C-alpha cells in the first residue's frame, strides 16, 4: 500500500527540484543582451543558443535518465543529474566566450533532466490518490509562479552582481537541493523492484513505440508547440527591447504571458472532460493560426512595430492556446503506451525537445528586430500542428503497444 500522507517539507523538495528546469531557462533571459555585448558574440553562435541548446541537452538527459533511475534507484539518478548540472553551471559561470557558455548550458540541460524525470518517478513510487493530487496541485502553483518570477529574480541579480552571479545562484540552489535530497529523502525504489539497464531491450521497446503512427505524429506536434514557445523564450528580451524599448519592465510583461499558460491549465482542467482532448487541441491550434496570422499582418502594416497593446493582448491569448496544448498533446501521446509508459514518457519528452530545438533555431535565425519571425513561427505551428493532430486522430484505434522484456 502506498502512502496517503506527506509532509510539507517533502512536497517543497519535489517542487523545487522540478522547478529547476523553468528557473534555468527563464532567469537568464534578462542577461542575454549583456552577455552578447561583453563576450562579443559572433556567428554562427548567438545568445539565442544559450536558451535553445539548453533544451538540446535535455533531449539526451530525458532519454536516458528515466531508464537509469529504474536501474540504479531514484535518489542516485537525481544526485547524478544534479552533479552534471553543477558541472555545467561552473563551465558557464567561468566562460570567456559564448561557445563555452553553450557547452555549459548543454551540460546543465542533460543534468536537469534528472530532477525533471526522476522526481516524477519518485512521486509515483510513493503516493497515489489524494496524496498524489495534493503534491501535483502544489507543484502546479510553482509551475505558474516560477516562469512569472524567474526573469525578475534574474534582473535583480544582474543589477547588483552581473550575469555570472545568475549562474552562481543556479549553483548554490543545486548544491542546496542535493544536500537536502541526500539528507532527507529515502530511496523509494527497492533493489528487488529495479529494472536492469539493457540497451538492446530499450532500443527494441523504443522502436515499438516509434512505429506507432499516432505516437510519432503527436511527438512532432508537441515538439512544434514547444518549439514556438522556445523561439519566444530565445528572442523575447530582444523583441521587447528592439521593438518597444522595454528593458526594466521586461520581467513584468514576461510574467503576463506566463500567466496565460497558467490560466489555460486551470480552464483546461475544468472543461476537457466536456469537450475532449482532441477538440481542445484542434481549437487551440486554430487559435494559433488566427493569432499568428493576425500578429504577422499587424507587423507588416506597422512596418515591424505593431501597437504594444495589441502585441500584449494577442500574446496573452497565444500563450493561453499553448497552455491548452501542452498537457493535452502529452496525454494523447501517452494513451496507447501501456506498460511502456515510462520509456514512452522519456521518448516523448526527448523527441519533442529535439523537434523544438530544430524549430526554434531555424526560425530564430530569421530574427530581424521585429516580431515577424515570431508570428511566422506561431502561424506555422498552428497549421502543421492541426494537420498532425487530425492525422493522429485517424490512428486513434491503434492497439496498446506490447512490451519487450530483457532476457
TrEMBL record:
The keyword Transmembrane applies. Gene3D superfamilies: Multidrug resistance protein D. It comes from the Bacteria. Keywords: Cell membrane, Membrane, Transmembrane, Transmembrane helix. The chain crosses the membrane at residues 12-35, 47-65, 77-94, 100-119, 131-150, 156-183, 215-232, 252-272, 284-302, 308-329, 341-367, 373-392. It is found in: Cell membrane. It is a multi-pass membrane protein. This is Multidrug effflux MFS transporter. Residues 7-397 form the Major facilitator superfamily (MFS) profile domain. SUPFAM superfamilies: MFS general substrate transporter. It comes from Nitratireductor rhodophyticola. The keyword Ligase does not apply. It holds the Pfam family MFS_1. PANTHER family: CHLORAMPHENICOL EFFLUX PUMP RV0191 (PTHR43124:SF3), PURINE EFFLUX PUMP PBUE (PTHR43124). Its main location: membrane. PROSITE patterns: MFS, SUGAR_TRANSPORT_1.
